[in-house]
Amino acid sequence: MIDFINANQVRELINNAEQDYLFGVDFELENGFFIPNPKENKEVLWRIKKHGNLVATTQINERKEFKKSPISYEQYNKLFAIAKNRLDNKEIDLLNLTVRTPIETQYTLQEVAQYSNTPYLIMIPDTLVCFSPETFIKISNGVISTNPMKGTIDATIPNAMEKLMNNPKEQSEHETMVRLGIEDLGTVSTNVTVKRFRYTDILNTSTGQIIQTSSEIEGNLAPEFREKLGNAIFELLPAGSIAGAPKERSLEVIRESEPNKRGFYCGIFGYYEHSTKTLETAVMIRFIEQDKENKKYFRSGGGVTRDSISELEYQEVNQKIYLPFQ
C-alpha cells in the first residue's frame, strides 16, 4: 500500500531528492505522498504528459453504468449564498465553490484510469482516480510557468466558443485568475509575463465535448528556489484557480461554505525527472474518490463571482461530472 505522510515531509523530501520521484499534496496541506523512481511502481498508476507507467486503452470492450446523484439545487443554493454574500460585501473577488456528488458505476478506479486519455492522470488503489486537464506549474531550465484554467462551456451549444469568449462573467473570472497567477509566480520568480491569454482546449467526455479556457504565465525562478523545489511548490499552494482571490480570505470562505474537507481533491501531484531537472505538476480536478465502504464520489466545482447566477453555477458543477472517454 502507498504510505501517506505529512505534507511538510513531502516538502523536505522534494528539497533533498536526488532521483526521479512522483509526489502529491492535499488541498489542506496536511497529507501527501512521495514515491521514488515511480516508473518502477506497479501499484499507483500515473501519467504526466509523456511520462508515466500507464498507456491509455483506446478500445473499451464493454460500456458500463455511470450514474450521478447530484445534491439538489436548494442545497447548492445555500452554499452559493454564503459565497455570494462574501462577494457582495467585497471581502473576496472570486471563489471556487465545490461539491461532492455520490456516483454509482461498475467501472473500477483502475478501469477509469486505463480508459482515460488525459494529459494528467493518477490512480491510487481503493482511494482515488484523477484525470486532470489542468497544469499547475512546470519548472525547466530555470523557467517556471503556470496555466490557470477558468471558464467552461458545453461545446454543443450553438456558437459555444463565441459565447464563452464574450461572456463578461467568464472574462472577469479568467482575468482575476491571471492576476492571481502573476502575483503567485512573483513570490518565487522574476520577470513574470503572460505568454498566452485565454486560449481554448476541447475536452472529450462521456457526456459530450466541453470547451475550457486557460492562460500561460511564466517567470525566471529565483536562485534561492532552484535547489529547493519543495519550497517553491509550497509557496504557491493551494493553486489559485481552485481557491479564489484574494487567496487567504477565499480559503476562509471555502471552510465556511463547503461541508466536507477537500482532501486530495484540488491538491496537486507531479513528477520530477532528475536527468533533465524538469518538474511537471497538475491540479487534482476531475476527481473520483472511494471511501472505506467502497462508495464513490465525484468532486466538481466552479468559479463564483459577483455576476454569477446560482442556477447556471449549479448546472456547471453538474456538467463537470463525467468520465473522460466516449
Question: Mind explaining what this structure looks like?
Answer:
By secondary structure, the protein is α+β, with helices and mostly antiparallel strands. Strands 1, 2, 3, 10, 11, 12, 13, 14, 16 and 17 form a ten-stranded antiparallel β-sheet that branches. Strands 4, 5, 6, 7, 8, 9, 15, 18 and 19 form a nine-stranded antiparallel β-sheet that branches. The protein has eight helices and 19 strands.
Give a topology summary.
Elements: E1 5-6, H1 7-16, E2 21-25, E3 31-36, E4 45-48, E5 51-52, E6 66-68, H2 73-88, E7 94-105, H3 109-115, E8 120-124, E9 128-132, E10 135-140, E11 143-146, E12 149-154, H4 160-166, H5 168-185, E13 189-205, E14 208-221, H6 229-235, E15 244-245, H7 247-257, E16 268-273, E17 278-283, E18 287-290, E19 296-304, H8 310-319
Antiparallel strand pairs: 1-3, 2-3, 2-16, 4-5, 4-8, 6-7, 7-15, 7-19, 8-9, 9-18, 10-11, 10-17, 11-14, 12-14, 13-14, 16-17, 18-19
Mean pLDDT metric: 92
Shape: globular
What is the CATH T-level topology?
Anthranilate synthase
Radius of gyration: 19 Å
For the record, what CATH class applies?
Answer: Alpha Beta
How far the N terminus sits from the C terminus, by CA atoms, comes to 31 Å
Largest sheet: 10 strands, antiparallel
Specify the number of helices: 8
Quote the beta fraction: 35-45%
- SSE succession: EHEEEEEHEHEEEEEHHEEHEHEEEEH
Question: What percentage of residues falls in helices of 4 or more residues?
Answer: 25-40%
